[in-house]
TrEMBL record:
InterPro entries: FAD-dep_OxRdtase, FAD/NAD-bd_sf, Gly_oxidase_ThiO. The keyword Oxidoreductase applies. One of its GO terms (molecular function) is glycine oxidase activity. Residues 3-347 form the FAD dependent oxidoreductase domain. The gene is thiO. The keyword NADP does not apply. This is Glycine oxidase.
Length: 362
């Protein structure tokens, strides 16, 4: 049986492990912390192929392909793991607070409609009829009925459980010392605990991927971009839709939790929560949903998004035989989880992926 070692046990690593173990391979995951404890659990979970992607092109098509798989993927994971991933399908409202934002929204809607995607252009009254919690200041909104969301903490737990039930082995705290390569082919991974031989190695280390010793030269490096999020408690829930704006987003959970985010801070591996960051996030959310002013503060945190210099993920085979990369997904990691796992499985098994990954070659 071929052995695959996966470096990183966030959503990407666990999702790849799930698909590879399902295919009958022996899979070991190496994680410096615990599965899903870093960027995966810090995300908001918006499946925003339309609301979060700036324009048409290969990356947009990859996001659409992954979003289209997510409903069935959520059901599959829940059935296998016994963990509900909190899949919600009420849709996303992109709010325009002034005429300039309204013009940008109209232009976005135009090319999406030309692409044949569902998007509704709403004036103020129509938007507030759909979501009464929205501010009266808004000039209008776009409604994306096919952009949904999940709970990333639950998704991380479900993926780890699914992989484990299929036989994947987790080694938490066993830090990677080097990827071992001989004659242009990967031979395994050296860790603090010793050498782990492998026929295939998958790099899924998130924002830490470029820090892995022995990693060959890739298309670009991956750097961390911090994002601060605030969680409130609001019971009963006051609104149903994700509210997205040009400064941030507000995500409701069915149990009354509300997530507000997020900053974009290029400050290395610093995950500090700052007063300035909280002020910006809270101000953004109250501009769009003013009724949150009397909701109870629950917690806040900061996660590190894995960003590349060209804003495209690194997905596919490296120049080293047997070494694959699934990293650099930046703000769309949760959304791209199912398609990434599918691509890596197909490549490891020597099959052509169902989607074009040439633009994302490591």
């Amino acid at each position: 049986m071929e052995r695959v070692v996966i470096i990183g046990a966030g959503v990407m690593g666990c999702a790849c492990a799930h698909r590879l173990a399902e295919a009958g391979l022996r899979v070991t995951l190496l994680e410096k912390s615990i599965p899903g404890a870093e960027s995966s659990a810090a995300a908001a979970g918006i499946l925003g192929a339309q609301s979060e992607v700036a324009g048409p092109g290969p990356f947009f098509e990859l996001c659409l392909a992954s979003r289209g798989r997510f409903r069935d993927y959520a059901r599959e994971l829940t059935a296998l793991s016994g963990v509900s991933v909190g899949y919600e399908d009420a849709g996303v409202l992109e709010v325009a607070l002034d005429p300039a934002e309204g013009r940008l929204s109209a232009a976005r809607a135009e090319w999406m409609l030309e692409r044949g995607l569902r998007v509704e252009i709403l004036d103020r009254d129509q938007a507030r009829a759909l979501e009464p919690a929205l501010t009266e200041r808004m000039v209008g909104a776009l409604y994306f009925p096919d952009d949904h969301w999940v709970d990333p903490v639950a998704l991380s737990a479900a993926l780890a459980a699914a992989a484990a039930r299929l036989g994947a082995e987790f080694r938490s705290g066993d830090r990677v010392r080097a990827i071992e390569i001989e004659a242009g082919r990967v031979t395994g991974v050296k860790t603090e605990g010793g050498f782990l031989p492998a026929d295939r190695v998958v790099v899924a280390g998130g924002a830490w991927s470029s820090e892995i010793p022995g990693l060959p030269r890739l298309r670009t490096t991956i750097r961390p971009v911090a994002g601060q999020i605030i969680q409130l408690e609001s019971r009963p829930p006051r609104f149903r839709h994700v509210v997205y704006g040009y400064k941030g987003y507000v995500v409701p959970r069915a149990d009354g939790r509300v997530l507000m985010g997020s900053t974009l801070e290029d400050r290395g591996f610093d995950k500090a929560v700052t007063l300035g960051g909280l002020h910006r996030v809270a101000g953004m959310a109250l501009e769009m949903v003013p009724g949150l002013a009397d909701a109870r503060y629950a917690s806040s945190w900061s996660g590190l998004r894995p960003a590349t210099a060209d804003n495209l993920p690194m997905l596919g085979a490296s120049a080293v035989q047997g070494l694959f990369v699934a990293a650099g997904h930046y703000r769309n990691g949760i959304l791209l989880t199912p398609i990434t796992a599918e691509v890596i499985r197909d490549l490891v098994l020597g099959r052509a992926p169902a989607v074009d990954i040439d633009p994302f070659a490591p």
